[in-house]
Amino acid sequence: MPTSRSASPARGLHLRILGAIDVGTNAVRLELARPLPDGSFELVHTERDPVRPGEGVFKTGRIPREVEQRLLSTLRRYAALARRHRARVRAVATSAVREAKNGPDVVARVHAATGLELEVISGKEEARLIALGVLRGQPPRAHNLVVDIGGGSTEIAVAVGDHPTSLFTVAIGSVRLTETFDSMGKVPPKRLELMRTFAAEAFQRSLPRFTHPRRALGSSGTIGTIVSFAAEGGRRVATRKRIRRAVEMLAAMGLDERRRIFDARRGEIVVAGAVVLEAVMDRLGLESITAVETGLRQGLLVDMLEREGRDAPDASTGEASRALGRRFAFDEVHADQVARVALALFDDLAGLHGLPAAARPILEAAALLHDVGSAVSYGKHHKHTHYLIANGDIPGFSDRERQLVALVARYHRRSPPDRERPDLSLLPPSDFRMVRKLATLLRLADSCDRSHHQLVRSVRARVTGGAVELVLRSRGPIDLEVWDAEREGALFRKVFGRRL
Q: What backbone phi and psi angles, to 5 degrees, belong to 496?
């Protein structure tokens, strides 16, 4: 049965409510909350349903039809609850849907059945959101390490204050390890040793050495369950030695015995979860881990609240874009110049392009990364740029937003962003219009630094009758920039209906 607690929807109905839906590997969860003036949240309603979206996924690569039906039934109810409370909702799916071959089909059927846009997020985006939820209100200079063990993956974040500085994801979790080694029942010593070796090798392969605190905060029900079992006197903190002892004790129990201690589903996967926790603590050399009750859902609420309050571009997505660019040794000075000009055009021509504020960070990221494909080959670098962004990871962007960034950057040169292009033909109309307009602004901004010498000091744009007037202030001759900007005039007129 789902667990829930709620406040009357009539109370404070005039105040907005935010909703977070987490489609995990073990369960599906809903949280509705009202933001308060002090930055905290008042819980309005919460539910958890043991749908097990990851059941069989890590063995078969597919979400079974009966699991999908359970998921659709649960999400229909969640969508109805959100409508009842007039909540603005963000729904995300993690490793099970992320890895399922039929994941895109399931997402499409969720939308058709419920109206929810189920967003499949990357492991690093999951880690970022978890850190936001766990670290809300931390002192600005506090250094923290956050670990979350899910059903299919483990997420790790290092942060200063409440701002994540390093994000990691490792494809190992409690359900995946349970299915791999069939460890629901009593686990013999030899099989336990194999599980420990498997988990240790997963972290060794995927988790580099990095500087971090020796005490971690542990999010997720798996960590909370294991820490409570391992700690003294019901405390919420356990040392690595106690976690190691808990692994041995849990493995020696039969399933019935574990089910008497934990709920039925947790009893099936708790041995694997403990092995994963032991392995990550060994890899990171942790002294202890403290279980916390906040995590992904709270991070979604915090992220939505912060996005609501932003008029300026998101500093975190800008820095994340620069981090990706630095991996490919991009020309950062040129990238910053193009981004600065592109955002000036976006702001000055807001009445003309009519795009939402959410399009601004997409343009900024595309401008910063438009030339990263040069690391592969300059000749077709716009196409290589598209590939690198589309298959990269920019924390702060959903998968859909990252794909839009990739398309805007891809069309910063050569072919115009027309509907008949294969990579644009299937976009929803609103996304196509956004890509077309942003790519046109990016092409113009790139023209304003065609020499890569940052000669243009400032740009202003204004609509005057049937034309757009561009005023450039420079610190030297900009004949090349003006010539290239004039070449973009035909596309600009086609897209915006104004002469440049």
A: -105, -5
